[in-house]
Amino acid sequence: MRVVYYSGSYDINSLGATRTIDLMMVKSLVELGYEVCWVARGAQDIVECEFWDISSSRLKSFISRLINKLDRELFGKSINDIAIKEFIKYDGKFAKLINRGLVKVDSNTIVIARNGMSLESFKAAKNHGGVTVLHSQWLHPLSHKNALTSVYKKLNINSKPIPLSRTQRQLEEIAMVDKVWSISSLVFESYLEHGFQEDKIINCPLGVDLDKYKYIKSDSKSKKVSIVFVGNVNAEKGVHDLFEACYRLGCAGKEFKLVLNGALAPDFRPIFDCYKAKLASRSIEIDLCPGDPLDSYTNGTFFVLPSIHESFGLVVLEAMASGLPVIVSNKVGAKDCVIDKKNGFIFDVGNVDDLTQYMSELIDNPKMVLSMGNESYRLSKGYSWLEITKKMMEELN
Length: 397
What we know:
The protein is an alpha/beta fold. The protein folds into two domains: 2-203, Glycogen Phosphorylase B (Rossmann fold, 3-Layer(aba) Sandwich); 225-381, Glycogen Phosphorylase B (Rossmann fold, 3-Layer(aba) Sandwich), CATH 3.40.50.2000. The protein contains 14 helices and 13 strands. It has helices at residues 17-31, 58-75, 79-99, 119-127, 141-154, 164-176, 185-193, 239-251, 269-280, 294-299, 314-321, 352-364, 366-380, 385-396; strands at 2-11, 35-41, 50-53, 109-114, 131-136, 179-182, 201-203, 226-230, 257-261, 285-288, 302-305, 326-329, 344-347. Helix 8 links the parallel strand 8 (226-230) and strand 9 (257-261). Helix 3 runs parallel beside helix 4, helix 8 runs parallel beside helix 9 and helix 11 packs across helix 13.
């Protein structure tokens, strides 16, 4: 069996879930003995397999970044509008590789590619007899759109959460593929809600790199409580609810610092600045630190992901593997990996009262932190990438 794995338009050398997921999945497929072809934007020398780098030259990349900057600053285009252009551009490159016979696809080939980024590539693969598998890294596009539209309206954010053209591309892809890879019960339910056939869905969670994320007891954990959030700092991640909970805890006299390990979204800046001032009035420090979250996990006390929607949330498993208790909303797909009140807490999305209460319990109870952290670490061992990949391929075969 041959597997062609397409990473979409994201640069695999940039930090984030795409790099981690795709690298670990490809490594595991090779280790399991499959013939693997990896098509991605960016060079790599980690996995020994057939590899096609579809990135542009440095000059073309520079010109593209310049055009994108002008589109944002002069013509008011959003990051999502620009991302669609990238989706289409690299999708076309991959499709050409298949159509020209450079990337071999036949009836013995499974093509795994990302939703929204693979319309022409799926068409090409099907024309050559390949089995097409859509990696649904988001909820069903209509569920995704509804969730974001609601929170944007609530927070008076004027930008459009998802361009219509992206939703349309996603729906076209979904209609044509042979299988959809659902990474959580939330994704599974969102597809059923919109009439997708259950027998065409493969249910398989993501894994975690157990060699990178380890349970290291740090001396700094005993000094000051560090609440860790990892991800883009924006509305869909529910950061406004986290801020409100922190403010309430500050008003109650709790002492801690908040670590936001991620990039601040431009349309979330007014909300961030407002809460930063409010939290400062309660002597609560906010550490905004984009980059590799390894140190944040190592030095953290517990982890919070209060997302309005999250198809999975790989950062939850990373935090668990690092020995942290985790607090997640019930709209985080990785809640499937959490045992409520054993290795953390699951709260109803938007319920700031419960979020505040659970955070307060962990701040006040170091023994609970230790016990739940140990359980998180134990549970994470069941999500090695090799076992997850093996499970998925068994489903496909």
